[in-house]
Amino acid sequence: MFVELSHEEVATIRAAMRVYRDHGCGEPSERTVDVHEIATACGDVISLDDEGIETLDVRLCKVVNATQPLTSAVAEQADNPHSALAVRIEAAEKEAGRSCGCSDVLFEKRVHEAYEKLLECASASERPAMEEALKERGFDPDWTPYVSKEGECELTGIETGCCPCGRHE
Asked: What is the DSSP string of 80-97?
């Protein structure tokens, strides 16, 4: 089955998949009945789990980039705060900052993951300029996540007695 989709339709599908995944819907027991029926085509197929959703997202991202190239040079766009590149980077940073509270460790982890996702989704022609623009914003391709010390939260790096993540007694 082939369905032709516009760039806007693919972007909307990707956004909906992100919400679906973020709400735990990759796990059938976490879905409402109507969402489960859609995800399984009324029981005709096995629905995608979180890993399958992520794989599909990457595939859709590559299709959009392959068929919807940026119209101007990526390097020029990085300097223009209203360009597609700048908007994508800003959106990634904003998403990374959600629910980080006072944890620089958690923010740094999320923003690097978001930057890596942008690079992964970039077309071959835009990847070098994308990486350069991200490096100017603090991206380090050799970055390694913070390793918590004894008594620190593995997620936030905050002392477990003060950590707001809710995973400690």
From this structure: STTSHHHHHHHHHHHHHH
Query: Total structural domains in the chain?
Result: 2
Q: Tell whether 11 and 38 lie within a shared domain.
A: yes
Q: Tens digit of pLDDT for each residue in 51-76?
A: 888 788 877 877 665 443 333 334 44
Structure tokens at 96: 């990374």
**14 plus 38 within the same structural domain:** yes
Instruction: Judge if 131 and 100 occupy the same domain.
Output: yes
Question: 138: left (phi > 0), else alpha (psi -120 to 50), else beta?
Answer: left
Indicate if 163 and 87 belong to the same structural domain: yes
Distance between CA atoms of 58 and 119, rounded to whole angstroms? 11
Give tens-digit pLDDT for 99-155.
Answer: 666 788 888 888 898 888 888 877 777 888 888 889 988 899 999 989 999 999 988
Q: How buried is 119 (Cβ within 10 angstroms: 0-12 exposed, 13-18 middle, 19+ buried)? A: middle
Count CB-CB contacts under 10 A for residue 129: 18
Cβ(164)–Cβ(100) under 8 Å?
no
Do 87 and 134 lie in a common domain?
yes
CB neighbours of residue 103 within 10 Å: 20
Q: How many CA atoms lie within 13 A of 16 on its CB side?
A: 10
